Amino acid sequence: MVAGTPPSAKLQRDLAEIDRLLAARQLDPALKRLSRLLKKHPDQPGLLFIAARAAVEAERLDRAAAWLRRLEQAPLPPVDVAIEVTQLQRRCGLADRAASYLERVARANPGHFNVLLARADAARATGRTERARALYLEALERDSACEGSLLFLARDPNTDPATVLSKIEKAVDDSPTSGLLFALGSCRDRLGEHRDAFRALERANQLARSSASVLALDRKIAAAPGFVREFSAGTMKSADSGGHPSDKPVFVVGMPRSGTTLTEQIIAAHPRAAGVGERQLIGRVLARHLERMAPGETLFGSLTTGRIRQDLGHRYLAGVEQLVGRRPRRIVDKMPFNFALLGPACLMFPRATVIEVTRDPHDVCWSMYSTGFQAEALRLSLREIGLLSALYEFLMAHWREVCPVEQLSYEDLVGNFDVEAPRLVGKTGLPWDEACARFYQAKGNEVRTASADQVRRPIYANSVGRSRPYRAWMTDFDEARRETLEALAGEITGSDA
Known about the structure:
There is one protein chain. This protein is mainly α. Strands 2-3-1-4-5 form a five-stranded parallel β-sheet, with helices on both faces. The protein has helices at 9-23, 27-40, 45-57, 61-72, 79-91, 95-108, 113-125, 129-142, 147-155, 161-174, 178-190, 194-208, 217-230, 233-238, 260-268, 281-291, 299-302, 306-324, 342-348, 361-371, 382-402, 410-415, 417-427, 475-496, and strands spanning 249-253, 273-275, 330-333, 353-358, 405-409.
């Protein structure tokens, strides 16, 4: 709990039960309890904070935004909590309010180091790169081993890697954290020292994974053939012609680090389009639907009625329109892992646009391995990235046959932008607009993915083939990908025999 009236014994018991529900990821029951408690204790800042955080996790962003607005009126909480409030505001699409709140926190805590870093991170996410660089450098002057600053500068194209290498090496010698090792690997890579870069990144990934919760890839791979059979071409055709009539959604899918953020930013720069970033919107809608399914009912079986699909589509659209705050002609939903849900998504929105971004699998793998994702579920070994790549290719090969998938090559897009970008925008049914060519200048659109820095620059092609110097060390990826694809193909062939 943050600053406010001390909780009573009854409130403490209620909060303990809410903690239990949140720990079990039972977000909807936790939110119901929190809503009831807030009716009794409307001015309890700690309760508002817990409720807002849970609502953001559940993608109930309208409720989260309302609670955050009430929290803004309360006295400032401790610094670290206040910084998290600004992060929640940004996740709700309230970037302006987050900036104002953060400045208020900065005035109340002059010189606080964590506030300085929060301001740098916010500037970077919203495309104010020069401001971000200045703040990171200020932080580095105060702490020569500042991980956030060193990681930013190691990857900053306007910073000579040779000028920060010695600082990174000293910081690693003193405290070899995964973040500092990712910075060292990035620096070595830019200097062309590939063997040393790989060693640093290998250590970084080992440390990052030590407490990570890895995707349940084996379980997902085992379930994939059954999912393909459930949503086969024949069963997809057997569903009635209903579903939501809107053609607003543009689903952009692909492997992580394949160019999906770049694709979203180009389309979202159009005056008649908007992006919602990387959010589990379709997944949340379907998860709530699964909770209401009858015992023994299959997901496809539950979606055969157009009225149900239309209702799910309405819930989805209400959520995304609240996020963008207006009603654009097209809304880009760029969640790479929606590749697992394209069948249900296309049944919900038969007129939606689906764009699959493809990229050389080795380049995708190396970009994932060398990035250092904040999300623990994406901190994968080379072998696990191979498993994920095989699962992706297996499912997408099926969805290409039964859904209206439009493919876009990352290599073609960055290599022939003047031709491919208008073609991309045309796939959504929108006319070309020069704002799409200046996507990197768009203001106010926060990017919270690992591509935040790349999409703030004009188009460039130097990421094509960047895995080549490292392929000799990528055999675990190659073997896992090949063996898993062969096994999955065998499952389908065997079932058809």
